[in-house]
């Protein structure tokens, strides 16, 4: 009875499995090992009977300043996931993405009954310039999502190719900079004035504030105003707004934590690269993609030792993705992996 009434495209969907697998060391979700619990002190005294600031003014003001744009160029979301939803609700499909990439672009397109177009990355996980430009010209997508650095491959896309795509397409091009804090590459925010079809997406989730669910788009005033039409009135709650503001006021502490993660990532990459039986791919993000002979076995053996990583082998042959943890966690992971691949 109920099923008959459910929209056809929703009937086919499966719920997103953010399942909780018990483990001692959680290195599967690209979270930071460092939290900012002291920011929670700022929520004391908050009036629980009042709705939050619908426009998240203080939070937007703070991030606008740090990214060198005006507050009117920022829209806030309950995580960037929500903003992907809003962007697809506003601009519709087809939605074009290189693959493999962050799965939510395609999932949300299906939820909203919009077509997605997947264009394979080349063998170095770079954008295939010719193929991307041809598909964009032929299929006329309304939205193009480019995650740079890309999840799950970890590399940044060639900025020249990204710029070429922005310049030569009539689509809205979203550059998702979720992992940019871990990269030495430049943000695309500087190009906003030049390209009216450009949207930059950012999140606080990877830098220690995932629990708060706070993400942003940075773009022209016109795009912000259009997307704001579909935003639910109180989408970022008062606790998150207050805690995010407090954490960001301490930007030095966040920067130090990011620096530790970057140092740890580079050290772990070199150790993985030198480990026989493992091929590690260079990363600009807070995780490393690596290939082993039998990914399912290695995944299971790591989990048996209490270490949870992400098994990516369905989309990239033989590959697992490990998030950079604390120095102790990374050491524990490396030693366990070394043992496992040596007994293969
Ligand atoms: N973009 C990319 C590329 C991601 O990997 C993720 C999280 N896995 C997100 C966006 C979503 O982040 P948020 O927590 O802000 O919804």
Number of helices: 12
Give the radius of gyration.
20 Å
Mean of the pLDDT scores? Answer: 96
Number of strands: 13
By secondary-structure content and strand pairing, the structural class works out as alpha/beta
Intertermini distance: 52 Å
Q: Give the assembly state of these chains.
A: single chain
Q: Tell me the helix content.
A: 25-40%
Proportion of beta-strand residues: 15-25%
Q: Name the bound molecules.
A: 4'-deoxy-4'-aminopyridoxal-5'-phosphate
Strand neighbour order, sheet with most strands: 2-8-7-6-5-3-4
What is the approximate shape?
globular
Give the ordered list of helices and strands.
Answer: HHEHEHEHEHEHEEEHHHEEHEEEH
Poorly predicted ranges (pLDDT <50, ≥5 residues)? none
Give the biggest sheet: 7 strands, mixed
Report on this model:
The protein is of the alpha/beta class. It is built from twelve helices and 13 strands. The chain has helices spanning 2-5, 8-11, 57-67, 79-91, 104-111, 129-139, 159-168, 221-228, 238-249, 251-273, 295-304, 327-342; strands spanning 25-26, 74-77, 95-99, 116-120, 143-147, 172-176, 198-203, 215-219, 279-280, 287-291, 307-308, 310-311, 319-323. The strands form three sheets. It has a seven-stranded mixed beta sheet with strand order 2-8-7-6-5-3-4, with helices on both faces. Helix 5 links the parallel strand 3 (95-99) and strand 4 (116-120). Helix 3 (57-67) runs parallel beside helix 9 (238-249). The longest helix is centred in the C-terminal third of the chain and has 23 residues, at 251-273. The termini are far apart. The mean pLDDT is 96. Residues 30, 79-81, 102, 147, 151, 176, 178, 203, 205, 210, 215 line the site of 4'-deoxy-4'-aminopyridoxal-5'-phosphate (PMP).
């Amino acid at each position: 009875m109920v099923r008959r009434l459910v929209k056809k495209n929703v009937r086919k969907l499966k719920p997103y499995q953010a399942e909780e697998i018990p483990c001692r060391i959680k290195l599967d979700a690209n979270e930071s090992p460092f939290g900012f619990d002291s920011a929670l002190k700022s929520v004391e005294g908050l009036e629980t009977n009042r709705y939050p600031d619908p426009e998240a003014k203080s939070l937007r003001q703070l991030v606008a300043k740090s990214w060198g744009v005006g507050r009117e160029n920022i829209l806030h979301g309950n995580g960037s996931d929500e903003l992907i939803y809003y962007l697809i609700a506003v601009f519709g499909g087809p939605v074009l993405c290189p693959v493999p990439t962050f799965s939510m672009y395609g999932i949300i397109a299906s939820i909203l009954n919009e077509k997605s177009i997947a264009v394979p990355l080349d063998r170095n996980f770079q954008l295939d310039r010719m193929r991307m430009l041809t598909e964009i010209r032929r299929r006329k997508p309304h939205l193009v999502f480019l995650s740079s650095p890309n999840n799950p491959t970890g590399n940044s896309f060639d900025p020249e190719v990204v710029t070429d795509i922005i310049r030569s397409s009539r689509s809205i091009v979203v550059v998702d900079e979720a992992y940019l804090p871990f990269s030495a590459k430049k943000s695309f925010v500087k190009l906003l004035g030049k390209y009216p079809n450009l949207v930059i997406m950012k999140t606080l989730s990877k830098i220690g504030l995932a629990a708060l669910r706070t993400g942003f788009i940075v773009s022209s005033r016109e795009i912000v105003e259009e997307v704001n039409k579909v935003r639910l009135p109180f989408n970022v709650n008062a606790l998150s707004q207050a805690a995010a503001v407090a954490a960001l006021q301490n930007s030095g502490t966040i920067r130090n934590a990011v620096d530790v993660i970057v140092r740890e990532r580079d050290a772990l990459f070199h150790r993985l690269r030198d480990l026989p039986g493992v091929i590690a791919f260079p990363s600009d993000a807070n995780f490393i993609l690596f290939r082993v002979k039998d990914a399912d076995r290695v995944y299971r053996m790591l989990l048996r030792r209490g270490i949870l990583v992400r098994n990516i082998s369905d989309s990239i042959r033989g590959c697992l993705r490990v998030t950079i943890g604390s120095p102790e966690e990374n050491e524990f992971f490396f030693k366990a992996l070394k043992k496992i691949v040596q007994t293969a």
